[in-house]
Each structure stands twice: as C-alpha cells, then as structure tokens.
What does this fold into?
Amino acid sequence: MKKVLVINGPNLNMLGIREKAVYGSETLLDIAKEVTTVSQELRLETDFVQSNHEGEIIDKLHAARGVYDVVIINAGAYTHYSIAIRDAIKAIEIPTIEIHLSNIHSREEFRHTSMIAPVCVGQICGFGKMSYILALHAAVNL
It folds into this structure.
C-alpha cells in the first residue's frame, strides 16, 4: 500500500472562517475526512498534517524520507517565497504534488509565482477540496 503525506501550510487551519468567497465554507477537518475516505477507496495510507511554521513543515518533509512514497503539499503563502521548503522538497527525493484550493494564477500577481513548482512533479489548483482528491488520484499513478 502506497503511503502519502499531505502537508498543509499556514492559515489553512482557518478554513471555513477565512475568506469564504475564495476558500469556501468547509474546514480543514472536513477536507481531512474526505481525504481519508478517498484514500481508503484508492488503497492509500494517508497522513494529514498542518502547520503555520516553516521550520516544522521542513522537519515533516525531512522525516518523510524513507517513510512515504508521495507528498502532497498545500504550502499556502510559503508557496510564493519559501526557498527553504523548495530545497527540502528537492532534497527528500520523494515525488511531490503541489496543490491549492484557489486558482493562484487568477489571483493577485504575487501569487502567480510558485517557488516550489519546479521541484514538484505537478501542480493542481483552483478546484477547492477537489484539488486534494485529484492529487490523491495522481499519487496512485506515480
């Protein structure tokens, strides 16, 4: 059974409260439950984590080496400026899928650039909770 680590970055713990017009009314717990259900259907073992701290995200990436087969990451705002997270993704040599709830390319200019995209196998954005589900399907096929 393939093991998948799903990492959620800063402010994603505020889903359901924060900018509902952009991110919807579902909470991160709602998304985690759906990810668990779909993971079981796809025969994936999935761990779902969230942190508002860059160093903690990097520590989780480092610890994933040799444990997980795929990483799915919604790095939140760190997507646009964290060279440290980019370097951690590259260093662990685990196929990593970048995801976002919103379409980062149709929002503010500063969100158009992803520091992590070049070290990920792909990017899924703009599909809300389905971005996670689509990434799980992609993980099965990696």
